[in-house]
Amino acid sequence: MDSVARGTLINLATRLAGVALVLALTAITARIGTEAQGAFALFTSVEGVWLALLSGFGIALARRVSHHGEQPTALVAAVVLACGALGVAGGMVLWAISAWGPPAYASLWILALGAPWLLLAPNLQGLWLGEGRMAPMARLAVAPPLIALGLLLLLAPWVAPTLPIVLGAWVVGKVVVGLAALVVLGWGGRLAPPDFGALRREGRFIATIGLTNLIGLLNYRVGLFVIERTLGLSATGVYSIAIVVAELLWFVSGSLTQAVYGRIGNPDRMQAAATTVRVVQLSVAALLPAAPLLWLAAWLLVPAALGPAYAASLPLLALLLPGVMLFGGGAALSAYFTNHVGAPQVPAQVAAGSLLLNGSLSIGLAPLLGMPGVALAASVSYAGGVLWMASRFARHAGLPLRQVLAPGPQLRADLRLLWAMGRRR
Description:
mainly alpha, 0% strand, 20 helices, 85% helix
C-alpha cells in the first residue's frame, strides 16, 4: 500500500495543480460575464461528450498492459490512426452544429479545428495508466491548461480576453499536448506498424467503454443542458460554477483510483476485490470532511473572485455535494468491472439508469424549482447510482454489501499510512 499511497499523493498534487490552472481559466471567462461563462461551460461539455464517446481506446490499451501484461505497440499505432480519422469526422459534425445549431453552440467551430488531434492524449495515456506510471499522466493533465493560461498571459498586454480567445487558447493547449504525447511514444519505440486486426478484436470493448463514459458524462452534464434550454445562457453560467466546484471532490477519489488502476486489474478476483473495497472506503472517508470544507472555501472565494452574480451558485453547490461525495466512491467500483472483469457494460447499465433518473427529474423540477431542482436531481441520481453499483459489485465479488460500505480496521490503517506519507512529503 506504500507505493499506492505515494502514487496517490503525487497524482493528487498534480491534479490539484491542473485544477488550479483550469479554475484560473474559468475565473477569466466568468469575469467576462455569466453568459460567456455559460457558453464556455457548454463548449467544454460538448468537448467532454466527444472525448468520452471515443475514450475506449485508452482503456483498451490500459487493460492490455495491466491485465494481459503486454506492450501493444502495433495496437497503439492503429489507435493513433483511428483517432485521427475519427477526429476529422467529428470535426465536420462540430462545424455543422456551430453553423446551424442553437446560438449557444456557435463557438464550436473552434473545437472543430482542433478535433483531429484532440483524441490523442486522452487515449495514449492508457499505456501509462496500465503501467501505473503517474508522472507521464501528470504531465498530460497539467500541460493543456498551463499552455492555455500561458497564451492568455502573453496576449494580455495587447488583447483583452474575450470568449473566442479563451476557447482558442484552450483548444491549442489540448492539440499541442496530444502531438507531444505522440512524439514521445515514437521516440520511445512504442509505435510499430499498425495492427488493425488487433484493433477490430478490441472493437466491442472499446465501443462499450465509450458508451459507458458517454453516459457517465451526460449524467454529470444533463442538468447544464436542461438549464440552457429552460432558463437561458446566463443561468447556465451560474450553475456551471456550482458544478465546477463540486467536482473538485472527484480529484481526491480519482487520484486514488488512478493510482491503483493497474492493481484493480489483477487477474486474481480476491485481490482485485479487496483492493477495490479499500479504495471505495478510503475515497468516501477522504471526501466526508472535504465536502463541507470545499463549500466553506467556495462561500469565501467564489463571489470575491468571480463577482457577486455567482453567489447564487452556493446554494446549488450545497445541494450537489452529498451526491457528488458518494459518487466519488464509485470510481473504483467502475474500474473493477472494466479492468478486472472486462465487463464495462455493468457500469454502463448503472450509469444509464442514473442518467435516466437525473434527466427525468431535471426536466420535471427545472420549471418548478429552477436551478435548485436540477441540482437536487443530480445529487439524488448520483447517490442511487453508487448504491446500485455497490450492490452489483458485492454480488460479483461474493462479499456482503455491509463489508463494502462499512469501514473496518483496514481503513484506519490505510488512513494512518496516507497521513504519514503526506507529512513526509
